Amino acid sequence: MVQIFLKPGKEAAVKRYHPWIxxxxxxxxxxxxxxxxxxxxxxxxxxxxxxxxxxxxxIAVKIFSFQDVKVNDAFWKSKLxxxxxxxxxxxxxxxxxxxxxxxxxxxxxxxxxxxxxxxNGVAVIQSHSGGMHALAPVFTEGLKEIYGNHLKAVxxxxxxxxxxxxxxxxxxxxxxxxxxxxLFGSSQSGNILEAGNAFIVDWERGQKTGFFLDQRNNRLxxxxxxxxxxxxxxxxxxxxxxxxxxxxxxxxxxxxxxxKPAIEWTEENIRINGFDTQAHPSLNMDVKKYLNESEDKxxxxxxxxxxxxxxxxxxxxxxxxxxxxxxAAIRKLSPGGILLTFSCSQAISRDMFLSAILSASLETxxxxxxxxxxxxxxxxxVSIYHPESSYLKGFVLTVx
Length: 400
Hints:
Layout: E1 2-6, H1 12-15, E2 20-22, E3 26-29, E4 38-42, E5 48-54, E6 59-65, H2 73-89, E7 100-105, E8 114-119, E9 122-127, H3 130-134, H4 136-147, E10 153-156, H5 159-163, H6 166-171, E11 181-185, E12 190-194, E13 197-201, H7 216-225, E14 230-234, H8 240-247, E15 252-257, H9 260-272, E16 282-284, H10 287-293, E17 298-303, H11 315-331, E18 333-343, H12 350-364, E19 368-374, E20 393-399
Parallel strand pairs: 1-4, 9-10, 14-15, 14-17, 15-16, 17-18
Antiparallel strand pairs: 1-3, 2-6, 4-5, 5-6, 7-8, 8-9, 10-11, 12-13, 18-20, 19-20
Helix pairs in contact: 2-4, 7-8, 11-12
């Protein structure tokens, strides 16, 4: 196993259990590691600090153990089992009203670089590192042991996330490091329940792993505030917020997304939950174009855009984008209206996002009051030692 020695004083963060080691903290390595190799991290005084996967990039090591343990199949399966036990304590693993949840959330479950979402018997694996991707067969066996006959399929959807890795860009710029494939069973898409609401999930063609499970708790606000309201759902994806609003008694819901498949999924989800898609239109068009051209007013607007900032280098442009789109959304609201607004950009802090909302409010000249702070669902746990995992920020606002 490769040994990595840190510069004097750089062990402090590791001793505070932060799971990332940046390349600038490294003094030397006994041999050059490859991307995905397991490495032992030592202080400048050769004191053991941690075990982790090596990365080519600014984050050089992502730690999966702060103890000097034997790393074998049993080790990885035990981490998977511990993640399952947390979801069981959250009443997600045997809930008659909800059968989809995030089983593994990267650093939050001590498995940095690994995401596993469970959709009513189908587990979708998304690896963000070569080290975790190499372990996919082990995790597949672990999933079989945990779920038994309840596991219908395991789908590896890692090609896109691996393609964004530094090592991949440096060595294979013209192809995919892996091909998305079934590691066990086969099931192209399926139906799930979330709080009793039905949704189709297409993990093969959909964004991320197919559905945005992180918004589960936040969608309840759409349900609670929607009664007798005209609702606009921007960047609607597959229309989950729209369904919650309709179940909450909204008198009219308009859903907007630039993706044609997303609009098709939205219409299907509205239909299977018992609502008339003709009475609640879903429009395949650019959100900015709609906001600029439509004169319609609404009592509630849901604004959940894709990440405007993928890295810290473009936060300024992203903040301007958040200001612009939130100001436009505020202008769409009738007096007394409700705005649910979100940022899933990890590079944008909660304070930065709130400042963008302040600027948007000032731009409109309207009285805006903050009712609730929102975050990701609890099956996306955040290690107290790694606040960077708290990526989803949201606010419920009322606009006079």
